[in-house]
Here is the input.
Amino acid sequence: MSGSLNELEKDIEASRARLDQTIDQIQERLSVSSIVDEMLGNARRTPLSGVYDGALAAVRRNPVPVMIIAAGVGWLLHRMSSDAAAAVATERRVRQAKDSLPVVQTGADRVYDPDLPTRHPVKDLGQETQI
Here is the structure.
């Protein structure tokens, strides 16, 4: 029994070591310089490799400003899309509000006729019932 426990412990330690190596590889691949190198590596195959090499050198010298610029552009695109979505939602709400307005009879839709005598709604109410 103790032999199998020792083997299990060794297997667990080996698995942990492999897991640590995998995590280190993933962290290395997800580093800022690695991501920039991978993104710009595809551009190296273009005919403008001289321009690319200069841009790559500038990015390697100044990775933080490049990431800040990328974040700003991303934020701008996000705001533009959210503003457009908000405008569409507002327009939809206004359209729904116009369609669902209740009809209220206020008397404002009556036509004024100067030949008819005007009546006070409360004072003349008693006179109409007497006639």
The chain has five helices and no strands.
